[in-house]
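Worked example

This section walks through a single chain of length 93. The input is the sequence exactly as stored; nothing has been trimmed or padded.
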Amino acid sequence: MEANAHPLSPEAACNEPSRPSRSDVEKWNRFVADVDVYRACISTFVDVEYSAADVHRSAAERAAERWNHFVRNNLNVPEDFPHIPRREPRETP
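Given that input, the structure is written out below as tokens.
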């Protein structure tokens, strides 16, 4: 049996706008509009990543509860004994 985890460390694919000189009003107005697009892109990315983290945290908590249930029912430990699997340190490449 192998434990699965989310292997990716995604980056926001949002394009940061380049600030033009304020002397060109048309370019400046386009920059301001591009800033709004950039903000929306970053905000969406952040929301999606936090939602994914919540899902992963919930899955980890369910797995720990599943383990605790197994331990209590199969290894004769007291009901109030919290036995949460320890986290193994991550290997760094």
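What to look for: The first helix runs from residue 25 to 74.
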